[in-house]
Specification:
By secondary structure, the protein is of the alpha+beta class. The chain has one domain: PK beta-barrel domain-like (M1 Pyruvate Kinase, Domain 3). About 25% of the residues lie in helices and about 25% in strands. It is built from 6 helices and 12 strands. It has an 8-stranded mixed sheet. A two-stranded antiparallel sheet has the order 2-3. Strands 5-11 form a two-stranded antiparallel ribbon. Helix 5 packs antiparallel against helix 6. The radius of gyration is 17 Å and the shape is globular. The two termini are about 30 Å apart.
Length: about 240
């Protein structure tokens, strides 16, 4: 794995934005996805960064989704895939941390990192909703984003502290396992019959409760229990 570095810390307050839905109707929604680089070294707290807030607390935020991380390598992928050169340098995908060297197929659920004065743990992939399409100006982009499995990931804050651009992300302890961010994203959304790995996922201590419940429901349904679908994220 290449050196892991925090390139930008991004925050936003919720705001109302207009968009056209798939039926051609003009609507408005409240969103905090329009992130901008934060000055100085903001405090990373248990629920979020100072200066940041979530519009929909049912789908965003909380202990297991305090910080959303996206890597600059994925920026390059989407620039090439979409043929675009107009991406912002940071915060384009609504991430709090723009980083380098933290690919979805290298970072594992349960990995722990020291960044600045804070200690954080990887808890789950990001599952986008239509607001990402609004941010990108591409109706339905959230589906393409999810299918790529280049979705980034959320962090739980184990120790609060100040963070800032230029900080290294240093792994603490042994590498976690057994699943990378990309593997577990693919498993939940694109490999519904893989019950063996679903059981393994449920045993990952660091995995967020919503994701564990989704895997549990899948197994229960397969055994004839009629489990329920649990939304894990609505970024």
């Amino acid at each position: 794995m290449s050196q892991m570095k925090l390139l930008s810390v991004n925050v936003a307050q919720p705001r109302e934005v207009s968009y056209i839905d798939r039926r051609g109707r003009e609507k408005t929604t409240s969103t905090g996805i329009f992130k901008e680089p934060a000055p100085g070294r903001p405090m990373l707290r248990t629920l979020n960064l100072d200066g940041d807030a979530q519009a929909d607390l049912n789908g965003h935020g909380g202990i297991y989704k305090a910080v959303y991380v996206y890597t600059v390598e994925n920026y390059r992928y989407w620039a090439n895939e979409l043929g675009r050169t107009d991406f912002k340098a940071a915060g384009q995908f609504g991430e709090n941390f723009t980083v380098e060297g933290m690919a979805d197929d290298a970072i594992r659920i349960g990995d722990v990192f020291r960044v600045g004065d804070a200690l954080v743990e990887v808890t789950q992939p990001r599952v986008p909703c239509f607001k990402l399409g609004v941010r990108m100006g591409i109706e339905g982009f959230h589906k393409q984003f999810a299918e790529s499995c280049r979705v980034g990931f959320y962090l739980r804050v184990l120790e609060e502290g100040e963070v800032g651009a230029g900080d290294a992300l240093v792994g603490v302890g042994e590498p976690a396992g057994p699943m990378t961010v990309r593997e577990i994203m693919h498993l939940l959304y694109f490999d519904p019959d893989n019950l063996e790995d679903a059981k393994k996922a449920m045993d990952i201590e660091a995995l967020s409760p919503g994701w564990k419940q989704s895997f549990s429901d899948r197994i229960e349904k397969a055994l004839g229990g009629g489990g329920r679908e649990v939304p894990t994220d609505r970024s």
